[in-house]
């Protein structure tokens, strides 16, 4: 139980320091108590089936999962209450609320970069114009994939592999994607690469690395012309480069998901 409490504390502190680790919460909960026996289904008896499904749902709410959730939540709320007591509203704004209205249009590899440039040109962070409105909803596919779909599909097979896939998806689909964000998923590579398709099939690994570097270099060339030389490279240059980099990331993410999905349940969950 001590390790479970420690996990909750670490998760709470992590989300307090940098909000994005909250995406790992669902995966952590899913890998707890994996060995519990499941009630067999009873066929052709509708009421009994309904009762069994309800019973199975209740069995998912285990003491370990409640402990992690409660500990993480209390740690997160306690630290934020302490910071709010010291710094007041500016703490809430600069730590959390600015993510709703931020317009980071410089050095941004995201496919939403051109839309954010358009929004920034209005001189305000409010959602003016169709481009800004689209960018303001960018979090929906991002969170759907990284917080719900990937954990449900992969968490019970490999927790490190799932966290890599979640982080990769979170960064690739984020409306702000700068070079510093790559560090978020690179830390998981030593846990994933040894048994990955990229190592087992060297040609695939070299191709993926080469495509990732080349796509990034092509974007940087367009970005340099725009931000340093003052040339208008929005269309087609910058936009096409952003699409290309996004496509490469989606391809790599697909390989990671296939690798983790091919594992036996619990193979990398400890």
UniProtKB/TrEMBL annotation:
Record-level GO BP terms: GPI anchor biosynthetic process
Q: Which GO terms describe its molecular function?
A: alpha-1,4-mannosyltransferase activity; GPI mannosyltransferase activity
Which parts pass through the membrane? Answer: 6-32, 66-87, 134-155, 167-192, 204-221, 233-257
What class does this enzyme belong to in the EC scheme?
Answer: transferase
Membrane topology listed for this record: Multi-pass membrane protein
Q: Which GO terms describe its cellular component?
A: endoplasmic reticulum membrane; glycosylphosphatidylinositol-mannosyltransferase I complex
Tell me the route in metabolism or biology where this protein functions: Glycolipid biosynthesis; glycosylphosphatidylinositol-anchor biosynthesis
Cell compartment(s), UniProt = Endoplasmic reticulum membrane
List its EC numbers: 2.4.1.-
UniProt-listed InterPro entries: PIG-M
Alphabetic keyword roster: Endoplasmic reticulum, Glycosyltransferase, GPI-anchor biosynthesis, Membrane, Transferase, Transmembrane, Transmembrane helix
What family does the Swiss-Prot or TrEMBL record give for this protein? Belongs to the PIGM family.
Please give the function described in this protein's UniProt entry: Mannosyltransferase involved in glycosylphosphatidylinositol-anchor biosynthesis. Transfers the first alpha-1,4-mannose to GlcN-acyl-PI during GPI precursor assembly. Required for cell wall integrity.
Under which name does UniProt file this protein? GPI mannosyltransferase 1
């Amino acid at each position: 139980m001590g390790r479970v409490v420690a996990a909750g504390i670490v998760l709470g502190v992590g989300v307090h320091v940098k909000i994005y680790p909250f995406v790992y919460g669902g995966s952590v909960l899913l890998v707890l108590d994996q060995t519990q026996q499941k009630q067999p289904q009873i066929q052709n008896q509708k009421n009994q089936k309904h009762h069994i499904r309800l019973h199975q749902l209740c069995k998912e709410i285990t003491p370990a999962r409640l402990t992690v959730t409660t500990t993480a939540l209390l740690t997160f709320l306690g630290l934020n209450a302490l910071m709010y007591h010291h710094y007041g509203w500016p703490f809430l704004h600069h730590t959390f609320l600015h993510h709703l209205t931020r317009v980071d249009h410089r050095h941004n590899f995201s496919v939403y970069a051109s839309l954010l440039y358009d929004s920034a040109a209005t001189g305000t962070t409010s959602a003016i114009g169709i481009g800004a409105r689209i960018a303001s909803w960018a979090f929906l596919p991002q969170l759907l994939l990284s917080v719900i779909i990937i954990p449900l599909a992969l968490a019970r097979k490999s927790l490190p592999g799932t966290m890599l896939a979640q982080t990769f998806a979170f960064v690739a689909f984020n409306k702000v994607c700068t070079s510093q964000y790559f560090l978020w998923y690179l830390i998981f590579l030593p846990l994933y690469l040894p048994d990955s398709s990229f190592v087992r099939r060297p040609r695939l690994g070299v191709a993926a690395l080469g495509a990732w570097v080349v796509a990034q270099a092509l974007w940087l060339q367009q970005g340099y012309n725009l931000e340093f030389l003052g040339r208008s490279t929005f269309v087609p240059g910058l936009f096409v480069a952003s699409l290309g980099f996004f496509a490469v990331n989606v391809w790599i993410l697909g390989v990671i998901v296939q690798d983790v999905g091919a594992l036996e349940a619990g193979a990398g969950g400890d």
